[in-house]
Amino acid sequence: MSSYTISPTLNKDRVFILQKSELEKRFDPFFYVPELLELEKKVLAKKPEKLRDYVKGMASGATPKTTESEKYYAEKENGIPFLRVQNLSPTGILEFDDCKYINEETHNGMLKRSQVSAGDLLVKITGVGRMAVASVAPQGFEGISTNTFA
Known about the structure:
Blueprint: H1 34-45, E1 58-59, H2 69-72, E2 80-83, E3 100-102, H3 104-108, E4 115-117, E5 121-123, E6 134-136, E7 142-145, E8 148-149
Parallel strand pairs: 2-7
Antiparallel strand pairs: 1-8, 2-3, 4-7, 5-6, 5-8
């Protein structure tokens, strides 16, 4: 069998080659992304535990009405990120393209129990489409999410 190679200029996490013998469980290419395969190996190498063994607290909160945006929301420059399900991605990276921002009063009042800090696990528990999507808040992050494990 001939050997195929990928140009070194291509991102090897996005373009990769698998042998037929390497296919297992699923046929979709996302399952075989090298970075995710490495992560899965690390997870499987650990002793299985229940999520509750790691969680200090859980929060699920309200979503301020968009019809009263002047009361709850703020501009990006002086607002606090309000993470919604569309800000979580299957890769675990938070996406801020469509992020909403809330004002300080809403952050410390109505949504106080939904505050997110660096290292908090954000899990999609609502919405349509792909479920079991999670992200971790990056270092130095302060914001709000209605789906949080600490």
